[in-house]
Structure formats: structure tokens, C-alpha cells
Amino acid sequence: MSVLQQLNSGTMYLICGVIVAFVALVSGVFLIRAWRAGIALGMDKARMKRAMTASATFSVLPSVGILLGVIALSGSLGIPWPWLRLSVIGALHYETQVAQAAAEQLGLQLSGEAMTAGGFSTIALLMSVCIMWGMILMTVFGKRYLARLSGKPKPSAEKKGPGFADAAMTAMFVGMVSAYIGSYIGGFVSGNGLFLFRGSWTPLAVAAVAALAMAGFTWLTEKKHMEWLEGFSIAGSMLLGMLTAVLIGG
Q1: Which of 131, 157, 161, 177 is the most core-located residue (most Cβ within 10 A)?
Q2: Positions of the chain with pLDDT under 50
């Protein structure tokens, strides 16, 4: 039995399925408690039902991006593990990038044929350890942070523009994107040409199309006040980027 077959075995489905079912159960419990709390506050039931329906409706298309992430990772990590990661706590951009980076450090291709048991264990451990700090920090500092949010800031403490956290997050993503674009440019330059080595410029074309698509969604959201598009921007950009890769590769 190959490694990929083991990753798609019934045991893996059982382990991951139990965890996903537990998280779904907890979500259902909080849904019921929120409904009861709304009734206790005297909120209109019709409005609450409309809010639930709207939330469910507008969650469908953005979840397409999550499904694409599961499909993209299933060829190398099997279906249960990506399904678990992206259903519980993982983020689409995080899971795919960390898996690829870990595979590169191990000298492996992120594919089912090249995957080894040790390689999967290392990738899965790295994907889990690197993202758990949000839960840990929230457990330790969450109450204090919420207390600061609930309090009124002093006039002298009021700030104009984004705070340090927003600036740090933006800087992190700019650096991460720059690193990936730089690696793509390096691959294109080492390919010694645009037409003879078509595969070397495919990532650049995909990144350009996805960036333009995201810019278009942002423009429509902010300038045309189509706020409902904000939740679809990632999935839409990914779909257009993947379509570009298919068209170029075909």
C-alpha cells in the first residue's frame, strides 16, 4: 500500500471525521445558544431567521475556495488531512503555503508519488504547530485584550490610522508575497526565455491574473459599495488564477 493510499484509508477518515464532527457539534450548540439569547433579548424571530439565511447563503461561494484548497492538497496529502485542517482551524493561504514550504525543505515534491511517511509526518506537524499559537495566545491574553476593547480610549491615546497590529500583518503579507514572486522571477530568469520555457512564467501569469482579479473585487467593494462581494474575492481570484494556469498549461 502506497503512502497516499494510507493517507486516504478508512482509519484516517475515522480520526479526522470524529474531530470534524465534534467541531460541528460545538458550532450547533453555540447556534442554539445564540438563538435562545436573541429571544431572551427580545429580538424579532423573523429578522433572526433572515440573518441566518443570509449568512448561510453568503457562506457558500467563499467556501468554494476552501474546497479548492482541499482538492489541491489531496493529491499529495490525501483527502482526510486537508479536510480536517481546512474545516477546523486552518486558513487556505496558510495551509497550502506551509505544506509547500515544508516539502521544499525536505527536498520533496508536493505530490502523491514523491510523498513519504516521514515527509507527511513532518509536513502535518509543521502545519499544526505553526498555527496553534493563536489559540494559545488568545487563551492567555484574550481576556485582557477584550477588556481593553470594551473600555473607552482616552483622548490622548486615540490614534489616527492603522495600529501596530494592522501594520505588522500587512508587512508580513507583503514580505511573504514578495518572497514567492521573487522565487517565480528567479525561476523565469533561470529558464532563459519566455517562449522556450513556458512553465517558468506560468506562476507569474497566474499571480498577475489573481492580483488583478483581487484588485477588481476590492474596487467594486469599496468604490461601487458592493460589500457582498468581499466574501467572494478570495474564491473568485483563486478560480481565475487556476483557470489561467489551465489555459497556459493546456
Answers
A1: 131
A2: 156-157, 193-199
